[in-house]
Amino acid sequence: MIDKIKGHIEKVKAFSSETTEDIEKFRIEYLGKKGLLNDFFAEFKNVANDQKKEFGQVLNTLKNTAQDKVAELKASLENEAEATESLQDLTRPGQAIEIGSRHPVEIVKNRIINIFSNIGFNVSEGPEIEDDWHNFTALNLPEYHPARDMQDTFFIQTNPDVLLRTHTSSVQVRYMENNEPPIRTISPGRVYRNEAISARSHCFFHQVEGLYVDKGVSFADLKKTLQYFTTELFGKSKIRLRPSYFPFTEPSAEIDVYWGLETETDYKITKGTGWLEIGGCGMVDPNVLTNCGIDAEIYSGFAFGVGIDRIAMLLHQIQDIRMLSENDIRFLEQFKASF
Question: Distance (Å, rounded) from C-alpha 54 to C-alpha 48?
Answer without folding.
Answer: 11
